[in-house]
Each structure stands twice: as structure tokens, then as C-alpha cells.
Amino acid sequence: MATRVEEGRVSVIIPTYNEAENICKLIGELEKVLKGYNFEVIVVDDGSPDGTAYVAEQCGKAYGNVYVYDRGARRGLSSAVVYGFNVACGEVYVVMDADFQHPPQLLPQMLDKIASGVDIVIGSRYVCGGGIVGWSFSRRVVSRVAILLAKIFLPKTRGIRDPVSGFFALKRSVIEGIEFTERGFKIILDIIVRGRYGRVEEIPYVFRGRARGYSKLGVNEVISYLAQILTLAYPK
Q: Residues 131-157: pLDDT tens digits?
């Protein structure tokens, strides 16, 4: 992890791949909703051929708190988030996607929860008030099966309604010193299973279709998820 930690700072970590159409608008929205906070935006791009890293760098110049890391090749969502953890300077981390399926407007509420003593705050589609719009029946089944598998093999996830959410905030101390698998599509599972925390809360949000671009979920991601589950369930 970064050797310099800035007290009170929030690090918003955004893994990207082919998000040139979304990233500039998202950065602008974050600057609005987090006005008054001490925060940084960290974009970790996997060598997007659509120029996401370049677009993010150009947009970020207007604000001075946007840092873009182009890893040059597609190495996976989880490893991109871990990379963000390693370069971040904040005491609190927020992880979210660039495609507006995770509403930036929810961040102040998540950060208020952290300030009140919660260690991990999960944006949840499956608690009262949450939901999903625009998914096919098959996609909903895949999501439910993924959650079921997590709860079968990973007992620490059983009290959490949405343990595969990609939208969450946590204190830096939760993950200091833990080893990540970096194999799967859902880094939150590593955090729930291996992190050091007391309180976890879920807050509802409605997961909607992408503003622009296309979904990255495919067969490779499904295989990686299964490998992640088994790695966490049966560590060496």
C-alpha cells in the first residue's frame, strides 16, 4: 500500500476498461457530490483501446485531484482495484464502476456511515429499497446463483444480502496486510473473508443499465469468479 496516508482523505477507486464515453462525466459528478470532502479520484485503466486513460487525464486536469494509472494491458477487475488500493493515500476507500450503474449521489451517505463507525458499507441491490432495472431473467438467475455459491462456501458472507456488490466503501484498516487472490471478478469477497472489521452495513441502491458502452461480464469472468470462491474457501 501507499507509504503516505493523508488523514481524513477519501480515495475513490475506479477500475476501467473501454469507458471513454463515461469517465469524464463521472469525474464531473464526483467533483459535485463530494464537494467539501478531502478526496482523490484514482482511475486504474487496463490499456483501453478506446483511450479511456487519455480522456480521464484530460478531464482530470480541471480538478487537480484525479490520478490516472494506465496498466497497459487487461489484467482483470479485481487486480485493478487492488492496484488502486496500493497507490491510494486515503484513510477511506470507495470502489465503484465508471458506467453509472453505481450512483455517485450515494457516496455522501456511504461516507457518513463510515464516519459513524461502520467499517464496510456495501451498496446493495438486495436489501429493502434496492433493486435491479434492465436485467434479463437469465442475468438475474446468474446473480442469485453467484450469491448462493458465496454463501455456501464462504460462511462470513451469510449475513450479507449482496456479498457480490461492486459498489462499496471501507476503512483502510480493514484491508491492511491482507492477501488478495486477485483472480476473481468480485474483490469484495476477499475483503469480507480476509479483512479485519467489526461492523458491516448495506444501504440500498437501484442498479440500472449502463449509460453508455457494454457489459464486461462474460465466460472468463464467470470462471474467474468460481476460481475465486474456491481459493477463498480452500486456502493453501
A: 999 888 988 998 999 999 999 999 999
